[in-house]
Design brief:
globular; Dna Ligase, domain 1; Ribosomal Protein S8, Chain: A, domain 1; three-stranded antiparallel sheet; single chain; five-stranded antiparallel sheet; alpha+beta; 2 domains; 4 helices; about 30% helix; about 130 residues
């Protein structure tokens, strides 16, 4: 099976696992971007923990979920957002103000939109979680 967008596949796998009611899932193939995104989700309290396991190919992330994710999805195309425009995109993708996360890749790494506003940096929107 070929994957066109591993990030979107990982997020849909997490969402489907949450909806079924399971508390663990495996995400493959693993990548640095997916690992950074999982770290941001862990800081936001949406996943409990994750670990990288080498399988001889690209590797696997084993993720323990908390049951707090209502929806998560990749944002396509990856829109570039300036530091002052995050509120517009927050209204578009999140159900309410200060509820959920926009995950952004910036020149300073992968972070939430709130940290990007504090740092005053723009970036590309990767995903949303709430």
């Amino acid at each position: 099976m070929s994957l066109n967008d591993p990030l979107a596949d990982a997020l849909s796998h997490i969402k489907n696992t949450e909806r079924v009611g399971k508390m663990e899932c495996e995400i493959k193939p693993a990548s640095k971007l997916i690992g950074n995104m999982l770290g941001v989700m862990q800081e936001g309290g949406y996943i409990e923990e994750f670990e990288f396991v080498e399988d001889g190919k690209a590797g696997v992330f084993k993720v323990k979920l908390r049951g707090k994710i209502n929806n998560c999805n990749a944002i396509k195309p990856r829109f570039y957002v300036r530091a002052k425009e995050y509120e517009k995109w927050e209204k578009r993708f999140l159900p309410a103000r200060k509820f959920g996360l926009l995950i952004v890749t910036t020149s300073k790494g992968v972070m939430t939109h709130e940290k990007a506003i504090e740092a005053g940096v723009g970036g590309q929107l990767l995903a949303f979680v709430y």
